[in-house]
């Protein structure tokens, strides 16, 4: 960090999550960084046709960011592509926007997010190269909940601490507690023990587990989103991977 008359200059890696027009020629850019968490930067004049940063502030590309100001209004000074991230196309592109909306809505501003930043970078890289998106989405969703400190323990019953049994039916409550269901019992979201064990291992190859896992993750995310609807789900609901 160096000192300028405009204030202290900061730098970090970052990914663009969301942009909003600001005044006539500028943008407010929401970025995820490893050491400064999610922050808002004002990119002045970037909407002018010949602005140097006009084509740089794109989502899904790793950037090196420099800004000044610490609280409130942070002004973007420079942004440079770091390279190495293949472009997202087709369904993978839609999935990338889904991840961005999750981060934009769920990550508290200015919390250190080194592990989540790495997880997001891995997810983008895999989305660009792998043909099947669902395992990538489920992995990232659970790692996001872990980073926020709200991920349930999946391989043990919450009340008894007994190991989860593969063919037993379990329910999850709003706090993510895993509870064994008896005959005739129902829960807002329920799944077989094998699904929970597969989720804990990051294994989404079993068709039943994959289907139940999607339902469980939607429930958990909805709880922590406070009931807010994800626009990417609503707009792109016909895309099976979401």
Automatic annotation (TrEMBL):
HAMAP family, sorted: RecO
Keyword NADP listed: no
Transmembrane segments: none
Domain spans labelled DNA replication/recombination mediator RecO N-terminal: 10-81
Protein name: DNA repair protein RecO
Function: Involved in DNA repair and RecF pathway recombination.
Entry annotated with the keyword Glycosyltransferase: no
Record family assignment: Belongs to the RecO family.
UniProt xrefs under InterPro entries: ARFGAP/RecO (IPR037278), DNA_rep/recomb_RecO_N (IPR022572), NA-bd_OB-fold (IPR012340), RecO (IPR003717), RecO_C (IPR042242)
Domain of life: Bacteria
Keywords: DNA damage, DNA recombination, DNA repair
Gene Ontology cellular-component annotations: bacterial nucleoid
One BP annotation, GO: double-strand break repair
């Amino acid at each position: 960090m160096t000192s300028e008359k405009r204030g202290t200059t900061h730098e970090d890696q970052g990914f663009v999550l969301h942009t909003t027009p600001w005044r006539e020629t500028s943008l407010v850019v929401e970025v995820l960084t490893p050491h400064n968490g999610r922050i808002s930067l004002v990119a002045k004049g970037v909407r002018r046709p010949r602005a140097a940063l006009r084509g740089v502030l794109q989502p899904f590309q790793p950037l090196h960011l420099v800004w000044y100001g610490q609280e409130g209004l942070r002004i973007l000074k420079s942004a440079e592509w770091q390279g190495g991230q293949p472009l997202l196309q087709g369904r993978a592109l839609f999935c990338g926007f889904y991840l961005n909306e999750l981060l934009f809505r769920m990550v508290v501003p200015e919390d250190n997010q080194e592990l989540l930043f790495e997880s997001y970078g891995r997810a983008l890289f895999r989305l660009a190269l792998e043909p099947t998106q669902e395992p990538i989405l489920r992995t990232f969703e659970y790692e996001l909940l872990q980073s926020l400190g709200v991920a349930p323990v999946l391989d043990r019953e919450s009340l008894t601490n007994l190991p989860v049994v593969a063919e037993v039916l379990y329910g999850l409550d709003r706090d993510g507690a895993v509870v064994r269901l008896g005959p005739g019992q129902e829960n807002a979201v329920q799944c077989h023990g094998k699904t929970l064990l597969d989720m804990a291992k990051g294994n989404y190859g079993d068709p039943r587990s994959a289907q139940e896992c999607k339902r469980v993750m939607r429930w958990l995310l909805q709880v922590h989103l406070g009931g807010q609807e994800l626009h990417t789900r609503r707009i792109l609901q016909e895309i099976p991977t979401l």
